[in-house]
Amino acid sequence: MKKIDVCIIGARSLSSGSLIKLLLQHDRVNIKMLVSDKAGEDIQKIHPFLHGILEKNTEKYDPAKIIDNCDVVFMHKHHGEALNKTGELASLSSKKKKDVKFIDLSADFRLKDKNLYDEWYKFAHTQPQLLKKAIYGLTELYRDKIKNATLVANPGCYPTATILGLTPLLKNRLVDNSQSIVIDVLSGVSGAGKLPNGVNLAIDVEQNVIPYKIGRKHQHIPEIEQELCNMLGEKVTVTFSPHVLPFKYGILSTSYVKLKNAYEWDDIHKLYKKMYANESFIRILDNDVYPQVKDVEGTNFCDIGFSVDKKTRMCVVISAIDNVIKGASGQAIQNMNVMCGFNESEGLPYGSVLRKH
After folding, report:
1. Based on CB atoms within 10 Å of each CB, which residue in 30, 78, 248, 299 is the most buried?
2. Domain check: are 11 and 86 in the same one?
3. What is the pLDDT of residue 306?
4. Of 133, 167, 187, which closes a domain?
5. Which are the contacts of 212, defined by CB distance < 8 A and separation ≥ 6?
6. Residues 335-338: contacts with CB within 8 Å, 24+ apart?
7. d(CA 216, CA 235)
8. Catalytic residue among 7, 70, 157, 302
């Protein structure tokens, strides 16, 4: 069985550790290169859970070596940090006529309007030609485009949970978009990364809930609005309220949506079941059963439940994911599988079970 050679640029991060862990369980992948700003480090010391499993040192960034030796490159740096490197690698791949595929886990290619990067991420986008080529990597919604993509922009964790939860309502035009969609999200501390920053230290989060960037301040807002508008075909605005809670992994997104008409719960349930009928990683829950973070932790699942108030025409949609897996590394592998023609669940938790269904 032929394997593909993979490079991870930014191998030190928390979610890169998760990516490496999953790729090691993928029968069709060989981890060829681990690139870091600090070259020569033992990956087992960076991610101790790899002790005795992966003996490999980090390497310096070498574009020619990466393109010559790798089939898939995961860009796993902070927003804006590897933007020009992606452009350089894509250009070199084209020049050498080698079909290297790129999956970017930052926000660098998620937004189609380059001007939004100045406003929301505080950097000027220098690769507008790649913005046009990049495919938004929400696998369940853009699978057909991802199959033929060279560059995939892996979605943010908050947008993944929220967009998957709301899409069936929007695509079927059930939403009254004259009103803002209110989105209340709860995140585990891993969403803030490994470096101490005031919202991921035990002394800050234990026995506490930390609201932050409330209203229209969080950088995921334009990403969510862009994709919801794509689903509806009309302008959509959101009010977004994130909170950090004292658990490690997971996101619970609760969206409040005004419907155009009064619907029964069964009407909405049938709509969700129909849209996601063939999606291995989306689970639609029964009436009066709602997603919980503990049920998706360590998986690539997105669990969705909802309630419908016929009197007020309000629909409350709740979705849960593991922010590091379905919200980052797991979805990146799901996209890689689609791009490379592998089974979509290969290398992912419960993948062998899902392939039997």
Report:
1. 299
2. yes
3. 97
4. 133
5. 199, 242, 243, 244
6. 335/103, 335/137, 335/139, 335/146, 335/152, 335/154, 336/72, 336/101, 336/103, 338/139, 338/143, 338/146, 338/147
7. 16
8. 157
Do 199 and 310 share a structural domain?
yes
Q: What is the DSSP letter of 299?
A: S
Quick one: pLDDT at residue 201?
A: 64
Domain C-terminal end among 70, 100, 133: 133
Indicate the burial class of 340 (C-beta count within 10 angstroms; 0-12, 13-18, 19 or more): middle
User: Vertex 275, ends 269 and 279: CA angle to 5°?
Assistant: 110
State both tokens at 173.
């035009």
Query: Is there a contact between 284 and 275 (Cβ–Cβ < 8 Å)?
Result: no
Output the six-digit token pair for 171: 């695509």
Question: Is 302 among the catalytic positions?
Answer: no
The residue type found at 78 is H
Tell me whether residue 296 is in a domain. Answer: yes
CB distance 131 to 114 below 8 Å: yes
Kindly state the helix (H) or strand (E) to which residue 134 belongs, with its residue range. none
Q: Are residues 182 and 256 in contact, defined by beta-carbon separation less than 8 angstroms?
A: yes
The rounded average pLDDT for each run of 10 residues, N- to C-terminus, in the chain (357 residues) is 93 93 97 96 96 96 98 96 96 96 98 96 95 97 98 98 98 93 94 55 80 93 97 93 94 97 96 97 97 97 97 97 97 98 96 80
Type and span of the H or E element at 276: none
Structural domain including 176 reads 158-323
CATH of the domain at 64: 3.40.50.720
Compute, in degrees rounded to 10, the torsion defined by CA atoms 328, 333, 337, 343. Answer: -100
Q: Is residue 346 part of a domain?
A: no
How many CA atoms lie less than 13 Å away from 271 in the CB half-sphere?
18
User: What angle is formed at CA 192 by the lines to CA 187 and CA 198, rounded to 5 degrees?
Assistant: 105
Does 210 reside within a domain?
yes
Query: Number of structural domains, the chain?
Result: 2
